[in-house]
């Protein structure tokens, strides 16, 4: 089944370029495009895509508010990693934020709103295709160093909360271990290797953690991990 994609950017040449690249792939179908956030909300509601490439700064409605409004249509859905269907088990669109190196809190808030990751506008064509396929498969774009560095930068400039959110107390000791590794940006395969457990067991833990914490996906788990101090800026997997 083809990946249904929508391209959102206020620059016509970028929309055309990204759209042409995606449409040339046998496993991708471009089902719509939009020049601002308000159009994006309507196009997504009409087309129900798998992936939305979302620009940040746009007229009428910016990418942050557009992300919030789009994902508000799917309030009860979280990443269904335990489904085993290869597509994450969720019907809600995955949103990739299109950005440049000129990054500020605006982009970080898009992550908190539920975006699945970042894509730099000067990324290679192959990187764009890999990103679209990754999020369509239910993964969050955490492995590229840019995402972790951005999260570390923004969280390191914010005051630490006085205590961990009470909802973390609902995690079992094993789930807490898995949560910390998610927040450090490890994939399911890497978590399984770190904890000497099966990858399917890891998927089950991840799904339960996201449900217990009320998180949409792994990106929000990363944000929460940094904000609570369980993971600190600059900390790397061991």
Shape from CA axes?
globular
Main sheet, how many strands, which sense, barrel? 5 strands, parallel
Straight-line distance between termini:
38 Å
By secondary-structure content and strand pairing, the structural class works out as alpha/beta
Overall pLDDT metric: 80
CATH superfamily of the largest domain: Response regulator
Low-confidence regions: 80-90
Number of domains: 2
List keywords for this structure.
2 domains; five-stranded parallel beta sheet; Rossmann fold; 46% helix; alpha/beta; globular; 5 strands; 238 residues; Arc Repressor Mutant, subunit A
Summarize the structure.
The chain is 46% helix and 12% strand.
How does this structure look, described?
- The protein has 238 residues and is α/β, with parallel strands linked by helices.
- It is built from ten helices and five strands, in the order βαβαβαβαβαααααα.
- It has two domains: 3-141, Response regulator (Rossmann fold, 3-Layer(aba) Sandwich); 161-227, Winged helix-like DNA-binding domain superfamily/Winged helix DNA-binding domain (Arc Repressor Mutant, subunit A, Orthogonal Bundle), CATH 1.10.10.
- The chain has helices spanning 12-23, 37-47, 63-72, 105-112, 125-136, 145-156, 173-183, 188-195, 199-213, 218-227, and strands spanning 3-8, 28-34, 51-55, 94-99, 117-120.
- A five-stranded parallel β-sheet has the order 2-1-3-4-5, sandwiched between helices.
- Mean pLDDT is 80; it is low at 80-90.
């Amino acid at each position: 089944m083809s990946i249904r994609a929508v391209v959102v950017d206020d620059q016509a040449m970028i929309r055309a370029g990204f759209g042409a690249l995606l449409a040339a792939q046998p496993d991708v179908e471009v089902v719509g495009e939009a020049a601002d956030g308000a159009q994006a909300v309507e196009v997504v509601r009409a087309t129900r895509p798998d992936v939305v490439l979302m620009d940040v700064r746009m007229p009428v409605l910016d990418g942050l508010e557009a992300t919030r409004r789009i994902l508000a249509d799917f309030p009860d859905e979280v990443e269904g990693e335990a489904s085993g269907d290869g597509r994450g088990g969720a019907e809600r669109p995955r949103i990739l934020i299109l950005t440049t190196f000129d990054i500020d809190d605006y982009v970080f808030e898009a992550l908190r709103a539920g975006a699945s990751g970042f894509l730099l506008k000067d990324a290679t064509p192959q990187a764009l295709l890999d990103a679209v396929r990754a999020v369509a498969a239910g993964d969050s774009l955490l492995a590229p160093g840019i995402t972790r560095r951005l999260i570390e930068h923004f969280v390191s400039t914010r005051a630490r909360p006085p205590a961990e959110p009470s909802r973390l107390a609902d995690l079992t000791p094993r789930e807490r271990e898995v949560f910390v590794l998610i927040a450090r940006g490890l994939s399911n395969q890497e978590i399984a290797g770190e904890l000497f457990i099966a990858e399917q067991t890891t998927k089950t833990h991840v799904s339960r953690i996201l449900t217990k914490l009320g998180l949409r996906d792994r990106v929000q788990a990363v944000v929460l991990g940094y904000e609570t101090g369980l993971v600190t800026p600059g900390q790397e997997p061991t």
